[in-house]
Amino acid sequence: MGLKDFLRLKEDFAKASTPDPKELRGYFEVRLVTGILPDIRFFHHRKFFPDDVEDEGGGRGGYNEFLGMIRIGNFKIGVIDSILGDGQKVLRVNYNRQGNPFWVRPLNDELKKISDGYYLGRGIFDIGGHRFNTFYFSLRKQ
């Protein structure tokens, strides 16, 4: 993916709306958005959003699933200002959770709604206070 494609995705993300956390329930197919090539789905990746995904005190929250059986990256969600400080209100997927591997904990996904059941996300690593938007992905309700 070239710089032009990355900038187009950044613009599309900025134009999209902030989703209501309650609309994200159940399984969503995850695809890496590459810009030039078709969206790529690795290892049948999907995210699961349970009913308690936004309740800090309830359950383990959501998770990422690969190959229909490997679960990794438990998360909670909430609507906040982007950690990138760009003035956008986003739905944050927070992986800084007890039990997650050390390499998953600095990751935050931020989601915006493109249309009903379809979302654009950006993966942001927060390492020592330095924040990097490293990739874009799509979520589609299954």
What is the total tally of β strands? Answer: 8
Mean pLDDT: 89
What percent of residues are in strands?
over 45%
Can you identify the CATH class? Mainly Beta
The whole-angstrom Rg is 14 Å
Q: Do you know the CATH topology?
A: Lipocalin
The general outline is globular
Give the N-to-C terminal Cα separation: 26 Å
Question: What does it look like?
Answer:
- The mean pLDDT is 89.
- It is built from one helix and eight strands.
- The protein has a single domain (3-141), classed as Lipocalin.
- By secondary structure, the protein is mainly beta.
- The longest helix is centred in the first third of the chain and has 13 residues, at 3-15.
Task: Put the structure in a nutshell.
The chain is mainly β and about 140 residues long. It is about 10% helix and about 45% strand. It has an eight-stranded antiparallel beta barrel with strand order 1-2-3-4-5-6-7-8.
Topology:
Elements: H1 3-15, E1 26-32, E2 46-49, E3 62-66, E4 70-81, E5 89-94, E6 107-115, E7 118-127, E8 130-141
Antiparallel strand pairs: 1-2, 1-8, 2-3, 3-4, 4-5, 5-6, 6-7, 7-8
Features:
142 residues, mainly beta, Lipocalin, 8-stranded antiparallel beta barrel, 8 strands
